[in-house]
Design goal:
The protein is mostly beta strands and 568 residues long. It has 4 domains: 41-148; 156-273, no CATH class; 279-419, Immunoglobulin-like; 426-566. The chain contains 8 helices and 38 strands. 28% of the residues are buried.
Length: 568
Amino acid sequence: MKLIKSTLLMALTALMAVSCQEDLRINQTEGRDNVGFLSLSALSVEVVTDHQSVGGNVSRAEATRADVDINSFDCAIYNESGDTLIQSFKYGERPAEAIALDAGKYLLKMSSGEIVGAAFDSPQYGLTEPFTIVRKQTTALNNLVCTLQNIQATISYSADLRASLSDDTTATVTVGSSSLVYAIDESRSGYFKAEKALNDIDVLIKGMYTQEGKAPAAVEFNTTIKDVKAGQHSDIQLYIEYSSEGNISISVTIDGWVVDQSIVYDLAQLISENVMVDDDDKPTITLVDGDIDAPVSLAQTDFDANGNCTKSIVVDIASKNPIASVLVAISSTNPTMVASLAEYGLTESIDLCNAGAASGALKLMGLAVNNQVLGATAVSYNITGQMKLLSEFVGTHSFTTTVTDELGGATTKTLAITIEGEQVGPVAILKGLNIDERHTVTPELSIDVLVSAEAGIKEFTVTINSDVLTPDQLGTVGLCNVLNLVEPTASYSTVDPTFDASGIAASLSNLGFPTGEQVKDQTTVEFTITPFLSLLSFTGSGNHDFIMTITDNDGNTTVKTLMIKTVK
């Protein structure tokens, strides 16, 4: 008996520790009823330093990801219109606990620093992410991307033009009210504040031009690049284009006089912007024996008795220039499908040229990754075998692929695959884990449950069957072995008819379980029971089954068992 009391005392201590975060929430929401929460605990932010060119392609900047200290980025929460600051903090000091906010729409803004009018080598990165807070629910922000927030401009000269221009030749680049002067051998990038949504870049070239056999002549030439946006890179190249006659009529300033006549040195195309890639030279993405722009529908009849897809689905990628990246973004009308990606070691966005932690899973699927793709000019993906996994999720699943070559040519195509049928009854999965396997408690184990029910949840009960955690022990800490998450006071003990469930809602909440309005009529419910694992770890070695019985508003019922094992 002393052992049981000691065990329960330790369990109560664990419960009190878990309730600390709940106490913080209570303090934040005291006197406020229309409140939800924003969680940044799982927030991961990537800074992309591959900037978009004015022509829409991707150009490589000098900066690398290692140059950016994201922990110093300023973060701020604003109202939906962005004119009222709610809270601010550094990314590296973001709150570990959930932030209480009134229900409504908000903006999260991040910035690496203030954007000045114009300066060399001063890129600034940031993002604006809208999010919605729902009463008594937690909204989590996860994978976000910061991009360039100012305009990047570089100047270069062809070898023959550079040889003909004097060393004191300058290029003055102006965006709005700010300018930078580029020396002829300037290799740095200039960064400009985008004062408007669409901006003009004015370029003025001044110097001395020398043609063989003729005296040097002063040259002044200007041009304007239209409709440039923040985040774009204007790579300005200067060169001489020789006409078949050797000269052309243009306007140019020589020795202070503006002339408009045929001149021997041809400056007709003195300035051009390297932003366009011929459509014929861009990579191609095609669906073998099909139209990649048309959705692919798969009915039950398209799968054999073993669940294998009988339709061939093969995607071919071809590129005239070596491939630099193959970015695949995955989305779905079925949230359960997206949540299940982690179970297979995948994420919602993967660069097949640099697949990282997803490499092993993709290789097991027989798909080419990393060095098999990077630098290649052709690669084929037969994803027919993956349709067996996809068939578990009714809905339309989109795979948006962007292939970029080493010259910046880029092509984007979306392969949409619809699994036909009607999702009958609620679906329950574990995020990143297989719900049909038993999981051993370790300090690193997290149990995150996602339940979806298109018709809305009507009833949700959890029955606890444990080798060592008895209903009597649960009762000592305010719980019982049959938990009703929709109506907590309807929870009961199968061995103690006198069990009083009037205060069980608070105990359930402290242990990570949603209750009441957080569950009833909801189409998706996501929660973690990781804090409950602390209680289990004190009970000794044994198996613990949590039998979830979920009924939707159409009367469909799903039963799933979450299986845990503890080892003392």
